[in-house]
């Protein structure tokens, strides 16, 4: 998979293209990518995804920025894993937002020579969303591409969407969020020094320097899988303000105790996959009670990850 940050150096022929934010690359996105990649490769054509950073919503409504489900790099990797040959993370700004969908698509077509365009059922692009499915049908006839429209993907009575997954994570409903994603939710970043309290009580933790623009699951304790330098470990992970010790900070910490890991972690990159929400964050009457509960969390994490 090739990942580009603009269209400047991209010149393709007969592209099969999809356009969208694709934040989270959830099951609905995955269905479009499967159809796109299968069709493109059957015809010997490149499967291309054009996505955006920043998210258009954050440019159009900067006073209420939404948090991301994936970093741009992780999103491109996931799209590549689904069969995309080329991912273009297009820089979205006010100037782009003012363009009509027709003009933007014409500019894209000069670089990608669109053969087939796949979009979701509610897709619209351009200034004030002026170019929806009906307009794309007309543009396809003019520019020589075929339009394919993907029906919504439901899970029960809920349509799967990135906004719904953000809400589920923030509400602590990890099980449903993971089901909509089709995989465990993931955070990654460098391991940085903490205040060392975990080591003093015999339960050292790796403090994750996560991307501040990404959604952090609800405060509490989670059973996770940690990956560090190609090695995987079960990890009991706490998200919160550590109320037993202070609780005075408004900044959430993400601290993972890696089971059976006897390595120097500082400065290394860690990826955390969240498998199960164990309990909410709570304040204990003393350190002994906290330690006893953490050991119970560790034992439960071990059982869950082994199964």
Distance between the termini: 33 Å
Topology, number of strands: 16
Write out the strand line-up for the largest beta sheet, numbering strands in chain order: 1-4-3-2-5-8
Following the backbone from N to C, one meets helices and strands in this order, namely EEHEHHEHHEEEHEEEHHEHEEEEEH
Helix content: 25-40%
CATH 4th-level superfamily of the largest domain: HUPs
- Name the quaternary structure: single chain
* Average pLDDT metric: 91
Number of helices: 10
- Decide which structural class fits the backbone: alpha/beta
Set down the secondary structure blueprint:
Layout lengths: L1 E3 L10 E5 L7 H16 L4 E7 L2 H5 L11 H10 L4 E6 L2 H4 L3 H12 L1 E7 L3 E2 L5 E2 H11 L2 E5 L3 E2 L2 E2 L2 H9 L3 H8 L3 E8 L4 H4 L5 E5 L9 E9 L2 E10 L12 E6 L10 E12 L6 H20 L1
Parallel strand pairs: 1-4, 2-3, 2-5, 3-4, 5-8
Antiparallel strand pairs: 6-7, 9-10, 11-12, 11-16, 12-15, 13-14, 13-16, 14-15
Helix pairs in contact: 7-8
How would you summarize what this structure contains?
This protein has 307 residues and is an alpha/beta fold. It has 10 helices and 16 strands. It folds into 2 domains: 2-159, HUPs (Rossmann fold), CATH 3.40.50.620; 184-306, Riboflavin kinase-like (Elongation Factor Tu (Ef-tu), domain 3).
């Amino acid at each position: 998979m090739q990942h580009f940050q603009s269209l400047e150096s991209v010149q393709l022929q007969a592209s099969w293209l999809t356009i969208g934010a694709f934040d989270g690359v959830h099951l609905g996105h995955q269905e479009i990518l499967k159809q796109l990649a299968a069709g493109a490769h059957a015809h010997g054509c490149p499967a291309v995804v054009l996505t955006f950073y920043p998210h258009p919503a954050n440019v159009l409504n900067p006073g209420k920025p939404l948090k991301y489900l994936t970093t741009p790099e992780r999103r491109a990797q996931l799209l590549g894993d689904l069969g995309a040959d080329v991912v273009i993370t297009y820089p979205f700004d006010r100037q782009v937002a003012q363009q009509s969908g027709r003009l933007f698509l014409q500019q894209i077509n000069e670089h990608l020579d669109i053969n087939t365009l796949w979009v979701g059922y509610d897709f619209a692009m351009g200034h004030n969303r002026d170019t929806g499915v009906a307009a794309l049908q007309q543009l396809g006839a003019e520019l020589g591409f075929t339009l394919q429209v993907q029906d919504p993907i439901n899970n029960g009575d809920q349509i799967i969407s990135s906004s719904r997954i953000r809400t589920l994570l923030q509400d602590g409903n990890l099980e449903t969020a993971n089901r909509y994603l089709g995989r465990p939710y993931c955070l990654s970043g460098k391991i940085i020094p903490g205040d060392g309290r975990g080591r003093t009580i015999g339960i050292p933790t790796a403090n994750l320097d996560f991307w501040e623009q990404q959604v952090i699951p609800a405060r509490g304790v989670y059973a996770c899988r940690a990956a560090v330098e190609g090695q995987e470990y079960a990890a009991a992970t706490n998200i919160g303000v550590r109320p037993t010790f202070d609780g005075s900070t408004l900044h959430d910490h993400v601290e993972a105790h890696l089971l059976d890991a006897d390595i120097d972690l500082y400065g290394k990159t860690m990826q955390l996959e969240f498998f199960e929400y164990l309990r909410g964050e709570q304040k204990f009457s003393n350190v002994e009670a906290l330690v006893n509960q953490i050991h119970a969390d560790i034992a439960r994490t071990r059982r869950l990850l082994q199964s």
